[in-house]
Specification:
41% of the residues are buried. The longest helix is centred in the N-terminal third of the chain and has 14 residues. Helix content is 32%, strand content 27%. The chain is built from 12 helices and 19 strands. The chain is α/β, with parallel strands linked by helices. The strands form 5 sheets. Strands 1, 4, 5, 6, 7, 10, 11 and 12 form an 8-stranded mixed sheet that branches. Strands 16-13-19-17-18 form a 5-stranded mixed sheet. A two-stranded antiparallel sheet has the order 2-3. Strand 4, helix 2 and strand 5 form a beta-alpha-beta unit. It folds into 2 domains: 221 residues, Spore Coat Polysaccharide Biosynthesis Protein SpsA, Chain A (Alpha-Beta Complex); 156 residues, 2-C-methyl-D-erythritol 2,4-cyclodiphosphate synthase (60s Ribosomal Protein L30, Chain: A, 2-Layer Sandwich). The model has no long low-confidence stretch (mean pLDDT 94). The radius of gyration is 25 Å and the shape is elongated.
């Protein structure tokens, strides 16, 4: 069941490692870091409201900078420690907030997927945080001498937003302060209170801007994210007896089906080629050869999921897809809504990002004569 979730953006730290630059106000591709962080969370459907916590002397400036951010309820001064600052933010949350997503203001590149996974897991179990595996070998040392080498397969770098039952987090932070427990993150407070924190997938791009080098890396990531690429795909299959007719993952009652090595879903094939072409990742003939028995009769929707894995690995997300099916028969109007839903789910996009249309060929050509069905697809990819 969905729970109301409010975000606390903590932007009250010092700029000790930024060579005198206030990292919250420094421009990142022309937009102050704290504003980018607020905009990123405000754009997430799982976040219902926002509160920003900053240093007392910056409250007015941050309020003015973020005045246009939707869902922002307040900008409040922080305390002497992170725990006190988070509590100040929790106190300013709307009363309907059941979950609190605490986010570092210095992580402006957080994605909707990272936020969604953490919020949904916290709604289920009460406490969740995004994390990525540690890739470097870690040493425990004292006075410059190595004491031990932990097994890195069990080590994770925790990110934000860290999401909790709001009442539980407030109680845990008060207990930690009373006990004098030093907290490096908010999960530590939950752990000290005996609450199990579940880890969700983070992102290597969800970096925390701590040094001037981090700003350079963030600029490079944004430059790639802001890139857009267009792709076009085309496919055609012959209609034959003894085969099911499957289009967009929907089985359509008809006396003939499309001939092919897989399920011959011409619509999905065109979409996959458009996506692969936009990313310059070759085509489905290369990825899924028609002489490979592994793909004999396979659902093209499963192949689309594999294509999406390739796109994500290459740093792309789907902006939108527009499909036109060329078929004299059968009529497809009643099946198009289900096709759109299947495509949107497989590509991880909203339904409004997927268009499917069908047209006849007025009896002309091989599609017009009923010999086969063809499909065109165009797509827009966005760098992530």
């Amino acid at each position: 069941m969905r729970k109301n979730c409010a975000a606390v953006i903590v932007a009250a730290g010092s700029a000790a490692r930024m060579q005198g630059i206030d990292k919250m106000l420094v421009p990142l591709a022309g937009v102050p870091v704290v504003l980018r962080s607020a905009q990123a969370l405000a754009a997430c459907a799982e976040i219902d409201s926002l509160v920003i916590v900053t240093r007392k002397e910056l409250v007015g400036q941050v309020t003015a900078l973020c005045a246009g951010v939707k869902k922002l309820k307040a900008v409040v001064p922080g305390g002497a420690s992170r725990a006190e600052s988070v509590l100040a933010g929790l106190d300013a949350l709307p009363p309907e907030a059941e979950l609190a997503a605490v986010h570092d203001g210095a992580r402006p590149l957080v994605t909707a997927a990272v936020v969604r996974e953490a919020v949904q897991e916290a709604a289920r179990c009460g406490a969740a945080a995004p994390a990525v595996p540690v890739h470097d070998t870690i040493k425990v040392a004292k006075n410059g001498a190595v004491l031990s080498t932990p097994d890195r397969s069990r080590l994770f770098a925790v990110q934000t937003p860290q999401v909790f039952d709001a009442a539980m987090l407030k109680d845990a932070l008060h207990r930690a302060l009373e006990a004098g427990v030093a907290l490096t993150d908010d999960c530590s407070a939950a752990e000290a209170a005996g609450v199990a924190v579940h880890l969700t997938p983070g992102s290597e791009e969800n970096l925390k801007i701590t040094t001037p080098v981090d700003l350079t890396l963030a600029e490079a990531i944004l430059k790639r994210r802001n890139s857009m690429r267009i792709g076009h795909g085309y496919d055609v299959h012959r209609l034959t007896e003894g085969r099911k007719l499957i289009l967009g993952g929907v089985e359509i009652p008809f006396e003939r089906g499309l001939d092919g090595h897989s399920d011959a879903d011409v619509l999905v094939h065109a979409v996959m080629d458009a996506l692969l072409g936009a990313a310059a990742l070759r085509d489905i003939g290369v990825l899924f050869p028609d002489n490979d028995p592994a793909y004999k009769g396979i659902s093209s929707m499963l192949l689309l999921e594999k294509v999406m894995e390739h796109l994500r690995a290459a740093g792309y997300a789907v902006g939108n897809v527009d499909v036109t099916v060329l078929a004299q028969r059968p009529k497809l109007k009643d099946y198009i809504p289900a096709m759109r839903e299947n495509l949107a789910r497989a590509m991880g996009v909203d339904l409004g990002c997927v268009s499917v249309k069908a047209t006849t060929e007025e009896g002309l050509g091989f599609t017009g004569s009923g010999e086969g069905i063809a499909c065109h697809a165009v797509c827009l990819l966005e760098g992530r």
